[in-house]
């Protein structure tokens, strides 16, 4: 993995993941230019614009984090039968308003929709008889 940074963010590039869809080059050619060394020029656009283009990377070869933020750790997510999603590992949770919060794992996220503590599980799935093995609409 190669990293490129400015005062606000760090861009991570994993060349082995790249499928050459060129979303980055088409989106911000003044930042992503393979004919230059280094090929990522962090001064070529605002951090917000760079993040928007990286979010379109279909392979995940490009990613980013805020400057000073630890490199993302591996997160394991387990689907519990008739229960919550168990998240093992530290992560960043973004709420519906776009506010980010660092969350230390492990934690349980609600899948049944009945929790009074959303997005976290409060055990309501047991009380309401949540069943994740019900036939899907296309199987009926």
Report what the structure shows.
By secondary structure, the protein is α+β, with helices and mostly antiparallel strands. It folds into two domains: about 1-65, Alpha-Beta Plaits, CATH 3.30.70; about 75-135, CDGSH iron-sulfur domain, mitoNEET-type (Ribosomal Protein L9, domain 1, 3-Layer(aba) Sandwich). It is built from three helices and eight strands. Strands 1-2-3 form a three-stranded antiparallel β-sheet, with helices on one face. A three-stranded antiparallel β-sheet has the order 4-5-8, with no helix packed on it. A two-stranded antiparallel ribbon has the order 6-7. The radius of gyration is 20 Å and the shape is elongated.
How do the strands and helices of this protein lay out in sequence?
Elements: E1 2-5, E2 9-13, H1 23-27, H2 47-54, E3 62-66, E4 76-79, E5 85-88, E6 91-94, E7 100-103, E8 107-109, H3 124-128
Antiparallel strand pairs: 1-2, 2-3, 4-5, 5-8, 6-7
